[in-house]
Amino acid sequence: MFEAAHVTEMNIRDAYRIAPNKYPDKRGWFFEAFRAEVLTDIVGYPFVVGQANYSLSRRNTVRGIHSTSLPPGQAKLVTCVRGAVLDVAVDLRVGSPTFGMYDVTPQDEESGMAVYLADGIGHAFLTLTDDACMNYLCSEAYVPGTMIEVNPLDPDIGIPWNLAEPPVMSEKDATAPTLSEAQALGMLPSYEDCLAHYAALAKRPAGL
């Protein structure tokens, strides 16, 4: 009987680490990445996958901080399936008790560690190996014009990237506003709107 993955809350509200139980044998190993009913019981609503994405990045690449506006929102279950990364969650919900805080999760292909990020939680990572591949299971399909970008090098957030050299970044990420600038521009979701969104998801019929 396979045990479900172990889910623990991060320092940020509504963000979770998912650590699988691995079962090795002579063929290799097997683990459950997540079990829907376990995650539903913990977060309070069903996580329905609306889109799956992959990214491949060279060493010393920083992607993020990315989130999605409400509506439509886009909760994420993110796993490193090849290589290794330093994965970071940042609370972008204005008014949240943990607004502006971050939490760091090392991820690699051997551990199978994953993170679940509710709507309003920003996501970023630094690749520690070449050809690092990330899998994203998203609750909604991407809608153009709804992406939120915050600069991952914002000193006021203070993510400890420990960079030995300038990172490889997209122009959009490198020129993204700081957290305070994004807040002043009205780009960020409110904590109250996110809580209302979670409550609506809890009432949604199963499978929708």
Structure explained in plain terms:
15% of the residues lie in helices and 35% in strands. The protein is built from 4 helices and 13 strands. It has a 6-stranded antiparallel beta sheet, with helices on one face. β1 and β2 form a beta hairpin. The mean pLDDT is 95.
Notable traits:
alpha+beta; globular; five-stranded antiparallel β-sheet; 35% strand; 208 residues; six-stranded antiparallel β-sheet
What would a concise description of this structure say?
The chain has 208 residues and is of the alpha+beta class. The chain has helices spanning 36-43, 171-174, 179-184, 191-203, and strands at residues 6-9, 15-19, 23-25, 28-30, 51-57, 62-68, 76-82, 84-91, 102-108, 114-117, 121-127, 132-138, 147-149.
What radius of gyration results from the CA coordinates? Answer: 17 Å
Q: Beta-strand percentage?
A: 25-35%
According to DSSP, the number of beta strands is 13
The outline comes out as globular
Order of helices and strands: EEEEHEEEEEEEEEHHH
Structural classification: alpha+beta
N-to-C CA distance: 30 Å
Major β-sheet annotation: 6 strands, antiparallel
Helical amount? 10-25%
* Number of distinct helices: 4
- Order of strands, main sheet, comes to 1-2-10-7-12-5
Mean pLDDT: 95
Q: Spans with pLDDT under 50 lasting ≥5 residues?
A: none
List the helices and strands and how they pair.
Elements: E1 6-9, E2 15-19, E3 23-25, E4 28-30, H1 36-43, E5 51-57, E6 62-68, E7 76-82, E8 84-91, E9 102-108, E10 114-117, E11 121-127, E12 132-138, E13 147-149, H2 171-174, H3 179-184, H4 191-203
Antiparallel strand pairs: 1-2, 2-10, 3-4, 5-12, 6-11, 6-13, 7-10, 7-12, 8-9, 8-11
